[in-house]
Amino acid sequence: MANRGPSYGLSREVQEKIDQKYDPDLELRLVDWIVAQCGGNLERPQPGKQNFQKWLMDGTILCRLINSLYPRGKEPIKKISETQMAFKQMEKISHFLQAAETYGVTTTDIFQTVDLWEGKDMAAVQRTLMALGSVAVTKDDGHYRGDRDWFHRKAQGYRREFTDEQLRQGQSLIGLQMGSNRGASQAGVLHRKTPKAKAVFVDTLEYQGTLDIMACLAEMDEMDSEVIKVIKVKLVLVD
What we know:
The chain has about 240 residues and is mainly alpha-helical. It is about 45% helix and about 10% strand.
């Protein structure tokens, strides 16, 4: 585990909220999948967030995981270094993240290297692994190993292809549905009745009164600009 000092004050509160998002039950499911997917003699970690972090933090298991989702000879990470040098381990984590995004995991589901290396956000690590499992199940290309109920299939868009003839027929149909405006006129068209409005004028000529007018709100814009300057108009629509 990377050496990291204790958090204090606001930093500690933020870290505690992040830690609360970590799911111990999800951890067990992810361990089951990684062991099944990688195969071989992969040893399971002891339960617990810190043990889960230590199990993954050198990047080796993550690289094996993403490689196992590809056919032999087409693995995205050609060489997995076994060195214990810190920067090399972080480099392996970075290679996994790049390969996971290429595989189909969305950018918003990708954790940051320090989230795992320093244990800053192990919930984000869980989210990335869950997204990776979901993409693998959805692909259904024969490389996923494990219980398919561990992950949800991602929704996929259905794209239909149309021939040129079908497109031309569709354009004709739309034209018939919309009709034609040939020979059309406004004869017989019932005009919308103008709503009745009550205008209460309080002007600068020192009088108050009421006046019933037949006008739309839009018609007030047609008033003389000088008149508008000397009166304030409040319209109250009357049903």
